[in-house]
Amino acid sequence: MNTEQNAELTRRAAVHAALGDPARLRIVDTLLIGDASPSELSRVLGMPSNLLAHHLGTLESSGLVSRRRSEGDGRRTYLRLARDVLSRTAPAASDTPDRVVFVCTANSARSHLAAALWKQTSDIPTASAGTHPAATVDRGAVEAARRHHLPMPRIQPRSLTDVLVDGDLVVTVCDRAHETLGEVSAVHWSVADPVGASTTEAFDVAVEDLSVRVGELARRVSTPV
Questions:
Q1: Rounded to whole angstroms, what are the CA distances from 111 to 87, 93, 130?
Q2: Which SS3 state, helix, strand or coil, does residue 8 take?
Q3: Are strands 77-81 and 187-188 parallel, antiparallel or unpaired?
Q4: Residue 113: which residues within 8 A CB-CB, separation 6 or more?
Q5: Which of 50, 90, 142, 149 is deepest in the core (most CB within 10 A)?
Q6: How far apart are CA 70 and CA 55, in angstroms?
């Protein structure tokens, strides 16, 4: 057996070992749909912070979980599941919401792109909104939608207070929006803001990130179109 094969076996063994604990499986199941800060995980799982830190250390060492610094509150980090590493475990399907509402701060880019991707993936209705809506949809988002053949209707950014109704599943795609909304945000995706970079690459990376996450959520809550 060569060195490369040994390294791969070692990596696989580390992943299996990391998943061989009920507490760590609960963490993985929680992160499968959305990102969360350590304090949010501690609250949701009812797990003491020191014990959570221990389990997160194991998951990070195996490559199953990574961290990203919040673009809102810089003191926070968000934990993200490495889906390419986790290929054979998934919790049972979730209840089907009446509608999925994607939210970012300005409702000018990420939330519109997420809603457009959702329309191509699921039969559940969708909408987008912002906590502090901008005047217009960002041009970079419109151009990204065109490049990726996504339906982008000509609508003005809207406030979440004007959009949200009972039965909606709120998915924040912006750290600032998530930190503003708190528990109203049922699912959070810590997606880097492409508007700040304002490059084609940044918008394409955001679309790719959102596409993977939309597909995973759609498989959990609905029958794909």
A1: 27, 24, 8
A2: helix
A3: unpaired
A4: 141, 144, 145, 150, 152, 203, 206, 207, 210
A5: 142
A6: 21
N- to C-terminal Cα separation, the chain: 45
Whether pTM > 0.70 for this model: the answer is: yes
pLDDT tens for residues 101-118?
A: 999 999 999 999 999 999
Residue 65: burial class (beta carbons within 10 Å; 0-12, 13-18, 19+): buried
- The side-by-side arrangement of strands in the sheet containing 168-172 is 126-130, 99-104, 168-172, 187-188
Instruction: Indicate the Cα dihedral angle 55, 70, 86, 28, nearest 10°.
Output: 40
Q: Which residues contact 166 (CB under 8 A, 6 or more apart)?
A: 98
Strands 99-104 and 65-69: unpaired
Closest C-alpha to 194, from 125, 108, 134 = 108
* Tokens linked to 219: 């498989």
| Contact call for residues 158 and 107 (beta carbons, < 8 A) | yes
